[in-house]
Structure formats: structure tokens, C-alpha cells
Amino acid sequence: MPVIAPPHAVLLGLLLAFCSVAPARAQAPETLYEEGVRYRLEGRFDDAERMLQEALSEQPKNVDALVQLGFVQLAQGKNEDAQATFERVLVLSPNYEDARYGLAQLAFRNGNLDEAENLTNQVLAAQPENADAQALADNVARAREAQKTSAASPPEAVPTVPAPPEPAPAKPTPEEIAQAKRKRLAGLIAEATRLRLDGRSAAAETRYRKALSLAPEDADILVALGLVTANQDKLTEAREFFGRALRLAPSYTDARLGLARLALRADDTAEARRLAEEAKAREPESIETELLLARIDIAEGDLTSADARYEALARRTNDNAEVMVGLGDTRFRQWRFDEARAAYERAHEIAPDDPVTAGRLEREPPKRWRFTAGSEYSALTENRPHWTDSVAVLSYRLSPAATVTGETRLATRNNSTDLQIGARIDYAFSDAFAANASIAATPRADFLARVALGAGMAWRIAEDGPTGGPLFLEMQTRHEFSADSEVTSLFPAIKAAIVDERLTFKVTWVHARDDDSTVSNGYILRTDLAATDRFRLFAGYADAPEISEGSLFETRTFFGGVSFDPVDWVTINAAIAHERRDAFERNSFALNFSTRF
Known about the structure:
Elements: H1 29-41, H2 45-58, H3 63-75, H4 79-92, H5 97-109, H6 113-126, H7 131-150, H8 174-197, H9 201-214, H10 219-231, H11 235-248, H12 253-265, H13 269-282, H14 287-299, H15 303-316, H16 321-333, H17 337-350, H18 355-361, E1 369-380, E2 387-397, E3 402-413, E4 416-428, E5 433-441, E6 451-462, E7 471-481, E8 486-498, E9 503-514, E10 519-530, E11 535-548, E12 551-567, E13 570-580, E14 585-596
Antiparallel strand pairs: 1-2, 1-14, 2-3, 3-4, 4-5, 5-6, 6-7, 7-8, 8-9, 9-10, 10-11, 11-12, 12-13, 13-14
């Protein structure tokens, strides 16, 4: 039996324990920054300094990381380093009050009360509710009072003309405070928007949150926070921000579209469409809304509707690269490759520096043909002659959903040879459900079935199953007609995936019944690991019946193998198996290759 098809095809599960692990990638600056802040709050200042310095080596002008580093250096007693760090922040961002507060702390520690008071007043003018700055102002006032009471009186009272009292620092007026607050708010929003457009979502979120503390009911800030938190996969927080914005401004289209995009990410296309249609009813000419509705059409498998939306948008505007990329993607999915190419070229003309449009131009149509050839050699105990099993398979993709396959199989058993010819069709009704049907015939059969009919299906029942990845239900059925018997087999299975579908586990129940009502049951356990994009392993164990010469034989099999893609269009598979049955044992080795063209 060829290793590419039999129920017992698996490897020792222990092989997985020896799989090499890909080297860890360098941490992103945002992650380093977050860890540095956490270490600082935990009092682990050396670790905090190391993390923040690493973040700054990637982003030297990250003022958030610089401010945190300044406070770490302050805690370590590195006052000169802290002074230089805070001053650098104010050069990069003159309105960053946290850095000014850090300099006030340094001045206070150095006994320069005038400088400390001046800097603290500036912070309070911009942030009247800054509790830390207010506490520092109180400490400065107490220090001044202590200086007065502890000053030594002169040894002799010499009449002198008292110096005129120093004028008290002027308190900012309410209008000055309000103006400073507006200036601070505008500076934070401008800086946050720049960071968001640069792709630095974590730093932008920090700025937007500070802005929100100054203007808690600003719907624009809430929508911006929804965008940056969604970019960081903080979907619950993003939903809350968009929802708050919508409650404050019920006609705010961007907030409603933000909620619709989150629903689409959660595969709730019905809710996404409801929200998008509401937005369209309020703003019928919105291009953003129509683009989102096209994406929802694609998610629901309605490529015709999506194509019509993109085409209508392309007629309305001839300078929107996103519209042309969407039109190209839809036609590429429909296998209208020439039309897709034309749309991509137009998108690249509109936005020649955009890596998305450049990447689309490099897309090649999928290869429709696939040819597989392979052979299996089995050595049997008890002085039995060896078995061989060879296959040649040719497949052709008629459409994105349909594939037809023809197969020839040449097998030898006990000095007899059978040639089997088969055909199969696979059809994907949606991204979640696919089915297949097959037929095979063996002229002048000695041990293979004269005719074999098969059918099956695969159904993704959950995108996020108990293991965190997709969960599938599968079913295969097969009915074989031999010279003097018939056997029906059922193979229901459940498959779970984790780690971005790089690791899967599959359990198959095997039920076989012949026309004499003899029943045999068993199971197959299999796990697959994609160690890299080009190298995969599988292993497992089977305790299941096998059909030969129209009879059922109980077998127990350890099996496993590897799959390797030396280039994108070639795959090489190798597998081994050790099978035990009552009459003998069998050791098998199989090798095959596939090429796509």
C-alpha cells in the first residue's frame, strides 16, 4: 500500500521532541519599551535601563523611551545622565512636560529651589491636575520654609535696612491655564498622529491617552485610540473606544466603520455588514464604507458582488490605489489574471512608491497542474516476498474551487501484480467546507478491489477552537467491490490546529464492515508539524483494520515522515512505517515527489 494514501501511514511520536526550533527573532522596540517600563515600576532599574537602551538603539528619537530612561537614571542616582536625557527630550519635543518634571526633580535634589519651583510651575500651567507636579511644588514650599526657620541668627544685632521682599512667582490665570491646556492637547494629538502614521502604535497610544485625559469626551481622540489599539490586536479596548465615540457622536462614520472592521476580524460578517450599511445610509458617497462592504462580500464568498463594488468605485475615482488593488485582488481570486494585472498596473501608476502595489505586480497566477510520482517498498518477515506499491498522479485545477485528478497505481503482493486506475474530483463550496468524490477500477484484479467508490468532506466548524486554532470535522467513506465480497469503510475524524496552524493533531475512527456482517473498528492518531515554511514532519500510530483481497486484517502501525520543498514548485516526501499483524510484520519505506506547473 502506498504511504501517500493508507490509513496507517504515521512516525513515532517521540520524533517531535527532537525537532529543532527556529531561532528567536529580535524583540520589537515597542516590546522592549513596555518591558523597560514594567521593570522600572517593579524597581528592577538595571533591567529597565538595559531594555530601554535596546529600544533606543532601534529608535534613538523615541521620546517616550528617553523619558522612562531618565527616570530610571534618576532612581539609580545617575543625576548627570538623567539631566542630559531629559534635556534631550525637550529638544526633540519641547512640550513634553514629563521631561520638564524630571528636570524639576533633579533641581530639587540639587537644592536649587528657584529652578525647581520655576520648572514645576511650568508643568502645572500645562497640566493643572498633575498630582506629581503638585506634590513637588508642596515639597519645594516646605523646603523654603525649612530654610527660613533653620537659618542661624547673626551674633550681634546690627541694625540694617531690610531688603525688600522677593515678589512671589505669578500664578497663572485661568485663561492662561486654558490656553496652555489647548496648546498641550494640540501638541499631543499632532505628535500621536505622526507616530501612528509612522507605524509606532504603542507610542501613539501613550500620547492619545494623555490627550484623552485632557479631553475625555473628544470623539476624535477616542476613534484614534480605537485605531492604534486595534493595530496592536487589543480588540476589546478598541471596541470600547469606538463604542464610546459613537455614544458621544452617533453620526460619527469612522467610529461605526471601526466597529464594523472589528466585527469582520472576528468573522461576524452579519454584524459587520449591519454597521457598514448604517454608515452607508448616513453617508451614501463614502468610499471607505464601500471598500469595507466589498471586503465583507469577499469574506462571505460573494466575489461577484465585491467585483461590482470595486468596479463602480473605479469609475467614480481613477486615482485611488486601494480601489485598484481591491479590484485586482477580486479578479485574481476569480482567476481573471489579465484583468487583475491591468488593475495592479494602474494601482502602481497611482502609488509607485507603495510596497503594496509593487508587491501585487510580482504576483504570479497559481500553477494549475500537479504531478506526483512515488513508490513504496515493504520488507515482510516470515520469509514472505517483499511488496511494492507505485503511483503516478496528475491533477488539474479547473477553477479556484474545483480540482480533478487522475491516478494509476501498480502494486505487487506475493508475486502478483495489479494495475488500478482512478479518478477524483474535489470541490470547495466555501473557505470552510469542501467535498470530494472518487472512483477506481482494477482490471483482472488479484488482490486490489475491482471497483472502489469513495466520497468525503472537510468542514471547519470553528476558527478559534479549544486549542486556539481552527477546528475541523472530516469524513471519508469508501465502498470496495472485490471478486467475492464487498467492504464498506468509514473514516470520521476531528483535527485541531494550534500555533498558527503549524502544529495539528488529528484523531480518526475507522469502522469497516463486509457483506458477511463482519465488523472491525480501530483508530488512527496523527500529528503534523511545520518546522519551517519549507520543512514539515508527521508522526503517529494506528490500530485499525486494513483491507486486502476483500478481507479485513487487524494491524498496528507506527509511522512517520518528512516533507521538504527545495523550491516553491517541488515537494519531496519520505516516510517509514512498522506494521504488525498476526501473520507477519512489515517494514516500509516510501519516497515520492510532486511538481507544480
